[in-house]
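Troubleshooting: if your tokenizer reports a length mismatch, compare your output against this known-good record of 419 residues.
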Amino acid sequence: MKKLSALLLALAVLLSCAAGFLYIPWLSALAAGEEEEPAVYSEAEAAAFASVSDAAAEAAALTGGIDVDAPSAILIERSTGTVIFEKNADERRAPASVTKIMTLLLTVEALERGELSLDETVCVSAEAAEKGGSQIFLEQGENMSVHELIKSVAVSSANDAAAALACRLAGSEAAFVEKMNARAAELSMDKTVFSNCTGLPCEGEHLTTARDISVMSRELLSHDVIKEYSTIWMDTVRNGAFGLANTNKMIYYYSGATGLKTGYTAEALYCLSASAERDGVEYIAVVMGCESSEKRFAAAKALLDFAFANYCLLPTAPDFPIPAVPVKLGTSDETVPYIDGPENILAERSKASGASVSLELPSSVAAPVKSGDRIGTLRISSGGEIIAELPLSVSEDISRLSWSGIFAEFVHMLLSGDL
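Known-good structure output:
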């Protein structure tokens, strides 16, 4: 059956190309229990998508607000985690294949810990080979590299490849799911429960929220290696014998797209975690429960357009050195405070252009002081409005002088005429 499906798939691809169509991912469309929708788009339809929501984004830039045709959504900036927009973001829903963000996160983390290598060969288990839905038709006993398995999951949402990675990392999918839920708890994804590594329909509870998806998406994107896979539009595995095409068409059409994961089941409907980076700023837009594939991509595009049009990262460090603060009766004479906060904050573009930094610091502090003690405030303002306030803190422990030390300091001051 798998061989027949693969042959039919290859024939369909050839017919699509001969008809002058642009092939969009549907490698598993003929598999039983289809998880991702098949889609073939003409060049005209591709161009139409590229312009979808531009007018809405321009209007939003002028009015300062936006809404999207999605039951649940959230928009964040990746480096700071700042939430720009949310709509029913804590509503629990089935995520479909967006689940695989956690599967990929655990895989990437195992790679970075040295527990796994990209060139390692994995022997496919019966459990993995039996997965339906989106797949690359793995056979029990087949050997495939971790590199190709990750690529198959990230690009074509292959359920069998996801299960093969899960079994390699934990011995079974059930044991891997325990790791998924433990990692979700560590990330404070309090409304998320996983029952499998794929997002396929199951008997157990398998729910999350747009907010929780943005959290795990942010964590996954902090590992640069994932973008080597999530930005692939088309590629192959098995020495070029099997083609892959990305289920996330924004990778092809949206400027700066970096990922991340689509999902569809009859229960979940159309879901997407989309990310894009321009000029060093990366945003993540999550939409869940959309009525059609077109609506999920349009909603994500509108959110990302809104972010790029209206926001930017603003450095918190002033363009002048932070002055030292004298320390009275301390083992050090002074301390240079540090900014106890992020290197950048997210700001509206209209306010960032006229932003200024001011410092509020005491004339001196009395010892003892401990590293991390707040002794001042850095303020970022624009047009008389405070955009952000960040603590200025002590960078090192400074003890109080002993009595003998105080006496010696007194004598020094007396002799130097500072008294």
